[in-house]
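Quick check before the chapter quiz. The format below is the same one you will see on the exam, so make sure you can read both the input and the output lines.
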Amino acid sequence: MPINLLSVNEAVPQELSKNPLVSVSIITYNHKDFIADAIESVLMQEVDFEYEIIIGDDFSNDGTQEIIKAYQENYPNKIQLILHPRDYDCVPGRINNITNIYACRGKYIAMLDGDDSWISTDKLQKQVDFLEENKDFVLSFHEMLLCYTNGKITFSSSRFPNFKNEKTVFYHEDVTEGWFIQTSSLIFRNHLIGEFPEWFWEIYSADYTIQLLATRYGKIKYFPELRARRNYHPNSFTATQQSNDITLKRRKWENVIFGQNFPSYRAFKDYNSAKDNFRAATKNLKDIRLNGFIIDTAKGLFYSGRFLGNRYFNTSKKVSILQKYFSKKLKR
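Here is the expected output.
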């Protein structure tokens, strides 16, 4: 592990609530134009339980720290700050993310990026009530508004096929098939993950990995009501990291790690790789590129064999996945 993390007892001032039911984990870096809205959206929550706000700042240099310090002074019984003193030589934001999660003392953890905000006053109450009443669910999330700098506004569910059949209950297997849960919408049960695995330091997608780890223990509830907004802007982590060569290498290595640790993730990756290679082989055949046709066909057969030999999915599940793909092809 790269550094010694703060223990929870060392990180928590005496003024904070002793028994928070929910810990709101806010991760921020150079979010001076958004962080006040994020914090205010938590403070406006109408709840019948105690909560704490853990704000982890990743060495911001744009005035973000001054804003969150002012909020902490005004709300010392709710807000705990973890101000990182320097940039760390690891995946950007990783120290910040892990330290914040370890500092959360609540039974539930609600995640909120410092450039996002909640837009419903009953967001926490609704999600917590559901998890309290349904012990077989470990995580819940909801609809989010996606706002872009060019003025475009859309809903998060419109980007993913998972929601087309009005599905509201999901499983670990759905998460391994691909990312679709917006970070600032989710609440999950604390202490499910325990100590983060060593490989957590190497992957790129920390929030997605937390979803993978937590959902191994139970079901997921989706609320179609709109309760938060995500702001896409030039300085966001997603925008600044997307085309970075180092990021692309990390994403490739991440796929290997996920395949080693989540069998259903490996099955879906093999299935999609086989599908893509067979599609490429068909195109090569049409264009009379025989070498490409042979190579892509061989790759397609290789990944098909790995998918069919995967022990995580039984035969009926594999057949249903294949049927889903071929039914799409027939509809076209």
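If your answer matched, good. Residues 1-14 have pLDDT under 50 and may be disordered.
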